Amino acid sequence: MNAVEEQIKLYAKHLKIPTFAEYEEILRQTDPANGFSDLLLELMKAESASRQENQNRRRLRKAGFPYLKTMDEFDTKQLNGAVSSVFLQELGTCKFVQERQNIVMIGNPGRGKTHLAIALGLNACTQGFNVLFKNAATLSTELCEARDNYQLGRLERVLAKADLLILDELSYLSFNRHQSELLFKVISDRSEKSSTIVTTNLLFSKWTELFENTTMVAALIDRLTFRSHILDMNGESYRLKATMQKKS
Ligand code: ADP
Ligand code: MG
Question: Which three-class secondary structure state does DSSP give residue 106?
């Protein structure tokens, strides 16, 4: 490496434009007949693309998906016509995030609620939205711990930054008064400001079983269902069906 090349690498590092250090690669790909401005443009394009890619990767990591699932892998036919594929495609465009609408997916276990929530979250991530996936029980524990450690404000700010919050499995275990109040605040703070997806196995009429504070349940449902899409996903478990098919 000669002195000039070395300096280019140093400046590229200092100015945080790493693709400029790889200029030789871009030089090889551009027509030598092109002028200097063409080369500069190609360098800038490459730097911009690399930053975009890094941002996407960071956003995806921060979203905290437990695993990745896509809309393509989702078989709409399994929903027995209760939710049309056209409607799912529409949700997949993430207009609902842009318009700060919510989605509540109600259905028994194994119906693809988590799958669909992750797939929609992934689409939103790709479109540049900040997404946060949280298991509802885990979040309620985190909220309680944060409050005990005087860190609640910080956690609430992290949650507020998400354009889309996915609260998965607001179902199995019930929440005590403190937990339900903290969860309620998270949901009501988001109302009309940002989107929330909730997945649950309980019909709204059963939500009083979820929370100790029953008066809050009505207010919670009111906030959540305002400007929202309710997806009835009840039916035969996909997992069970797949297992049975394998056996027969
Ligand atoms: P739920 O959250 O409703 O309990 P999951 O999303 O965890 O269900 O789904 C269970 C498994 O079945 C996952 O591996 C998921 O990918 C698969 N699955 C469920 N429904 C569908 C579907 N309609 N199309 C494709 N895979 C599905
Ligand atoms: Mg699930």
Answer: strand
